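Hi support team,

I'm opening this ticket because the web form for multi-chain structure prediction keeps timing out on my end. I have pasted the exact lines I submitted so you can reproduce it. The total is 612 residues across two entries, so I didn't expect it to be a heavy job. Is there a limit I'm missing, or should I split the entries? Thanks in advance, R.K.
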Amino acid sequence: MLPPAGEAVSIVEVAPRDGLQNESVVLPPEQRAEFISRLAACGLKRIEAGSFVSPKWVPSMAGTAEVLKLLGDRPELRLSALTPNARGFADALASGVAEVAVFMSASETHNQSNLNCSIAESLSRYAAIIEQGRATGMPARAYLSVVVGCPYEGKVAASKVVRLGVKLLEMGCYELSLGDTIGVGTPRQVSELVRDFIAEGVSPERLALHLHDTRGMALVNVLAGLESGVRTFDSSAGGLGGCPYAPGASGNLATEDLVYLCDGIGLQTGVNLENLVDTSAWMAEKLGKRPVSRVWQALRATKENA
Amino acid sequence: MLPPAGEAVSIVEVAPRDGLQNESVVLPPEQRAEFISRLAACGLKRIEAGSFVSPKWVPSMAGTAEVLKLLGDRPELRLSALTPNARGFADALASGVAEVAVFMSASETHNQSNLNCSIAESLSRYAAIIEQGRATGMPARAYLSVVVGCPYEGKVAASKVVRLGVKLLEMGCYELSLGDTIGVGTPRQVSELVRDFIAEGVSPERLALHLHDTRGMALVNVLAGLESGVRTFDSSAGGLGGCPYAPGASGNLATEDLVYLCDGIGLQTGVNLENLVDTSAWMAEKLGKRPVSRVWQALRATKENA
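Hello R.K., no limit was hit. The queue was backed up. Here is the completed structure from your submission:
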């Protein structure tokens, strides 16, 4: 059953971090701050602003403190930044960002490859960050990736995902974002995963879905999430971030596609789709590429032909 | 609610007609027949083989009789051909094709533009064809297009769609394919349309959905259809047919995407996805383009990198 018309859906806009991080062009803090301001003007409130990691690892996220400084005090927004370790958390705290986010994988191999440590080490590292966040008034969000399939280990057991997810919530994260990082999942897997969390006492209101459109399944999985009670979804303006296979192939679910779907079924996102299409066009020009979103393409073409 | 795993979904493969008709390259009957044979070898049973219309109007469908002759007797398949008028029906009858299809629009302006006659004239023309089909053992399928939105008239009233659809079924069509020709629909519209047909006594087993992926909504609408009891979907190998806006933009729902979704949720299509990806690659080469299907792109890339 679809949620009744009029219900609200919360979008976490990830293009300025998860999106830009996976693009080959590195943008200066000024342009990243302007991107965030433009996204906010479209009605997006929850925005991943950057990442406090070593610029040696992730050059595209260098200067995240500068991005936040340029944005200044924006009490109407919930800006967040990724903090992989104590050093990152200290930088986040100094930057004045509203929220922090911790991230790990549901498969041991992917965690090792991505974070260079074991799942157990990630958990213990994050326990300290989440606790400090609580003490300093910075709520922590958790990302758990490869929750359906892992590029190294194949199918990931739902029981493992639930165990780790529940752990992250118990440690104090206010929300758990479940990532189908390689975009292999289909609706029954999503429904069953949410059902398994609910069976463990987790309200679907504390869950978010972070879906990749690699195989065009992001929106059907959103629908499965909506029908299971999930109301929070991560997405990326223009589908920015990750051409994992070929030109035109898609990584992150495009915010345009998510908003078009929600508008169509009468759910409130607060986002102005037309402004968002213009914002993605502006960013695409900086990156020298076209957004992969089909909604973007259709609306843009309509505009150009008008 | 998703259908239980193990249920069957019927795919009507439209690439050899609806797909090729909307491509700029015109292929000879030999290649079209080979395309159909290859699709059949992938496990597709219901295939639109061509159209008996004047080659002056639709040059790409010239030689449909020759296509069918080259295919020979294929009792395991259900090949169909579009028959817009009495002349077309006579040609279809002579060709030995198993089924005919009639097509019209739910909006007056679109019907005029597409068929050069009024809806009332279409209905009266088809009454004769459907009756002849019944007399000669050729079942007729009906396509009703622009069932959600019309490029000329905007939103199309569901009541009008239901009235015309019921009429076509009452006239003797065994199945009604509801086409979101411009790809604007979203799941609630699909669910409500199917519900309205059911309220008029039409079993969802007599309905099919013909969805376009222009705004990436085809699969969410398939899901809404599945949850409403529909088990038949039209799709086009490689997403062939219609780049209505821009390079990379998509018209027809790609069969690859539909099969991946059905495989994922445990529904039986009888189609071998890997073979289908190869078949679409073969056809794409003939047309000098890449399939727009994301599943195609992801699977092909996996193969090329292996």
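A quick check on our side: The radius of gyration of chain B is 18 Å. Let us know if the file doesn't open in your viewer.
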